[in-house]
Amino acid sequence: MTEFLGYERPDGSIGIRNHVVVVSTAPYANDTVKRTADIVENTIPITHPLGRCQTRPDVFQTYRTLLGYATHPNVYGAVVVAHAGEIVDGDELADDTAETGRPSTSINIHDEKGVMNALDAAVDAAQEMVQDASAMQREPHDMSKLTFGINCATSDTTSGLCQHHATAGAVWRLIDQGGRGVFAETPEFFGGEEGLAARAVDEEVEQTILDRVERWDKRLRATGYDVRGAQPTPDNMDGGLTTIEEKSLGALVKSGDGPIQDLVDYGAKIPNESGMYIMDTPGHGAESVTGIGAGGAHFMVISTGQGHTLSNAVMPTIKITGNPGSAERVPEQTDVDVSEALVGDQTLEWATDQLWGEIVDVVNGKLTLSETMGESQFAIHRIGPST
Predict the structure, then answer these.
(1) 3-state SS of the chain: helix, strand, coil percent to 5?
(2) Do the beta carbons of residue 305 and residue 371 sit within 8 Å?
(3) Is the pLDDT of residue 263 over 60?
(4) Per-residue model confidence as pLDDT tens digits over 113-126
(5) pTM of the full structure
(6) Do residues 114 and 166 both lie within one domain?
(7) Does 101 fall in a domain?
(8) Does 195 lie in the same domain as 259?
(9) E-strand stretches of 83-200
(10) Residue 264: per-residue pLDDT
């Protein structure tokens, strides 16, 4: 398949969904945002505990992440709700969104003289956007327009042996058609960083990868926590993994063995050029997936061993497992079960075909299981303390 059916945006990006998002700039606007989304069908609330009393690097990261969602390829338009005069400015966020040609509006609870007036304004704006969005039609576009996000979740001994291979096979199929792939979770490179860096397209990218891994190592050690030689998550240990190095070597399988084009900062836009990219994120799944979504990935494949509820409302998440126990234990969280490639007579190429077939369906409109259940997590990674 060389084409998919998507929605063209004024900025030239192509969406596989046509969402309207309601974005909070600070925790004090969260309730108004959630109430708006409860009232207006087909809207997605973007809420979080940040946007106030943050250091400058965190303000920038919070703003970049929120803007990434307001201008995501899968988003038609955005309603921005602010509480008062916060450090994440609602008017600025709406204006920057409008620069991409998307409809956007900014509502301030104080300026509206209270939450009820603000809610009324937000509902009116969201309702109009949703109705306008519903008139759009899907049209054929080249697969090269797509960006494929990759993440682990509750890895176990089956991950590096089975489902990660299927994920790698699928992402490189898209890259071969001119698309992009992006994987993350920098602390989970520990023990495998030398081999990963050797895949860089040049010495500068190679050194950047090594420097980012070292920075994470120092950052963790500064807390008194030495993650090397340890295993930080009980669910990984339950799945048979023993050290972070063992987990890392398995985790890196999902990126394949092709060249790495570049490493981008958390929540930064993923370049348009075809190839594989790294986003510098923590291993914390919700924060990592949130960052990749902000970067503009159209969809996410979450490769899981033990099963996981991790998902993203704006960026559809396809969950794949090669663990037959997980597929049986959490069927509503398993979009693709490729365990026959591990315990049966099927091959890893068959597993790749199963995942690729699901990807083709999802980018053309099929809902993932997490979408049908309305599940989503949103967590922006923090750099420093609150002030």
Answers:
(1) 45, 20, 40
(2) no
(3) yes
(4) 999 999 999 999 99
(5) 0.94
(6) no
(7) yes
(8) yes
(9) 104-108, 139-142, 147-153, 180-183
(10) 98
